[in-house]
Amino acid sequence: MYLLECCFLRFYLQRCRHAISRVKLGYVLYFFGMIALLEFFGAFVHLFEVTYDENFVYPYEGNIHEFVNALRRNEKPEVEPINEYKYAFVLKQPQKCKEDADHTLRLVYIIKSAIENFDRRTAIRNSWGIEKRFFDVPARTIFIVGMHPDDKEIEAKLKLEATIYKDIIQADFIDSYYNNTIKTMMSFKWLVKYCSNSKFYMFVDDDMYVSVKNVATFIRNPANYPFYLMESRKVYSAHKREIKQSDLMDYKAVSNFSNENATFNLKINKMPFKSFAIYESINNNSKKDNVYKKQDGINENLRIENRQLFKLNTSVLNRTKRQLFDFELPDDIRLFAGFVFMRSAPHRHKFSKWYVSLKEYPYHLWPPYVTAGAYILSRQALLDLYYTSFYTKHFRFDDIFLGLVAKKADILPFHCEEFHFYKKAYTKYSYKYVITSHGYGDPNELLQVWNEQKALGNA
Ligand SMILES: *[C@@H]1O[C@H](CO)[C@@H](O)[C@H](O)[C@H]1NC(C)=O
Ligand SMILES: *[C@@H]1O[C@H](CO)[C@@H](O)[C@H](O)[C@H]1NC(C)=O
Ligand SMILES: *[C@@H]1O[C@H](CO)[C@@H](O)[C@H](O)[C@H]1NC(C)=O
Ligand SMILES: *[C@@H]1O[C@H](CO)[C@@H](O)[C@H](O)[C@H]1NC(C)=O
Ligand SMILES: *[C@@H]1O[C@H](CO)[C@@H](O)[C@H](O)[C@H]1NC(C)=O
Ligand SMILES: *[C@@H]1O[C@H](CO)[C@@H](O)[C@H](O)[C@H]1NC(C)=O
């Protein structure tokens, strides 16, 4: 009996223990599963992120302005640079920008190309890369590539292409996506060394549509582009039947050009990212202003600098269109313009192509940065960014790297929506103000679109 009872009890207890441990195991598994999942999506990484606004510093830590100025004056800085891209130029075209000795250039296009993209380079040479497009805009078009040391055939083909067109720079690093920062900084190096006689520089990928005409207009008056160009609706009513409803967005916004407030406000409300200079001077509503101030934590000095640089104050609004058109930026302006992400966060989930560890970058936000596909620099910005890069730790994404450099150089990127970092849907009339659009890796499509826009007077 005892035995039986004992057995029964033991059996019961065992089952009980079994059940309990199974439940526990379930919880434990569930618990660890959740942790693994959260870990996978970067939840814990987020917990350990450092707040960007209060804490941002990025090596070299310390005041670098003196060193940068010393380098610009060709003097020895007190502290040695911490980051230099010391690759050699295999093809260097030293005469490219110096052909007309007394001529300063207005615009240099430097195209970041992959070595094997022969067709894309040909299409660019035959479309937006034509150097003599506008007689009053002396320009140069230059391609930069890396190396494919194991592929003799492709290297030989490139050498031949370079001999014919004399517009290819090659540096001796491996040409690959994760070496984009090297490619970008080698193009800076080349421009500073061999092509510093231009007022503006435009950096473009080889799969972009570019309207050279709109670029030339933009650099005259970035703060007002494209508003001051827009005509009243009447002008377009002539084309009414050809214009689709979706194309009308722009024209609606400008139907009251004379009423600047309404026009600008309408446009500004659509902007995902604040074009601060425009916003601040036109819509001086303290409450809203404060919200924005808090949001992007841009330091006040930068705001003031930029406001002055772009001379966008109320008196600009009183100018006639003609006056806006004749505007010319001063030579010492530090312009770094393109499609700007003011406050975006690093990818922390592990499967992302853009995953970034805390060790690599600890802050919860990136500094303001311009998407890499297309951006414009003035000469002063080029020089300051180049020498500041010597005191900026390498980062493998080139647009983020330039954002970090710009932050350290106190240059606030200037946002313009007409630099489309995605492919802007194409219709005959939707590209009037487009400066650049991504997604033109097909050379035939680029030629077709460019020819059509050129015929319409938009390219
Ligand atoms: C980048 O270029 C360097 C120098 O040629 C090379 O050692 C390295 O492997 C390249 N990196 C990638 C990711 O291709
Ligand atoms: C434009 O101005 C006219 C009068 O000047 C007004 O009737 C119309 O509503 C305005 N349109 C917009 C879109 O503000
Ligand atoms: C335009 O804005 C200014 C300043 O905010 C304001 O004084 C003026 O009344 C506005 N004009 C119109 C027509 O709304
Ligand atoms: C905006 O308004 C504030 C006070 O309301 C003033 O101090 C500031 O100078 C104004 N800014 C501009 C750009 O007019
Ligand atoms: C506005 O711009 C004009 C030149 O465009 C300049 O003379 C004037 O001082 C500026 N005003 C302010 C308040 O910044
Ligand atoms: C702009 O024009 C308005 C009205 O015509 C005038 O009251 C204002 O003083 C002008 N502003 C500037 C800065 O010239």
Can you give me a brief rundown of this structure?
The chain folds into two domains: 65-218 and 333-409 and 418-428 and 435-455, Alpha-Beta Complex (Spore Coat Polysaccharide Biosynthesis Protein SpsA, Chain A); 229-325, no CATH class.
Q: Mind telling me the C-alpha Rg?
A: 28 Å
Bound molecules: 2-acetamido-2-deoxy-beta-D-glucopyranose
Helix proportion of residues, in percent?
A: 40-55%
Poorly predicted spans:
232-318
Q: What name is given to the CATH topology of the largest domain? A: Spore Coat Polysaccharide Biosynthesis Protein SpsA, Chain A
CATH architecture level-2 label of the largest domain: Alpha-Beta Complex
Percentage of residues in strands? 5-15%
* Main β sheet profile: 8 strands, mixed
| Count of distinct strands | 11
Total number of helical segments?
A: 19
**What's the CATH first level of the largest domain?**
Alpha Beta
Q: Return the domain count.
A: 2
Describe this structure in words.
With 459 residues, the protein is an alpha/beta fold. It is 42% helix and 13% strand. The protein has 19 helices and eleven strands. The protein has an eight-stranded mixed beta sheet with strand order 1-4-3-2-5-8-7-9, sandwiched between helices. A three-stranded mixed beta sheet has the order 6-11-10. Helix 5 runs parallel beside helix 19 and helix 17 packs across helix 18. The relative contact order is 0.14. The structure holds 2-acetamido-2-deoxy-beta-D-glucopyranose (6 copies). One 2-acetamido-2-deoxy-beta-D-glucopyranose binds at residues 259, 261, 284. One of its GO terms (cellular component) is Golgi membrane. One of its GO terms (biological process) is protein O-linked glycosylation.
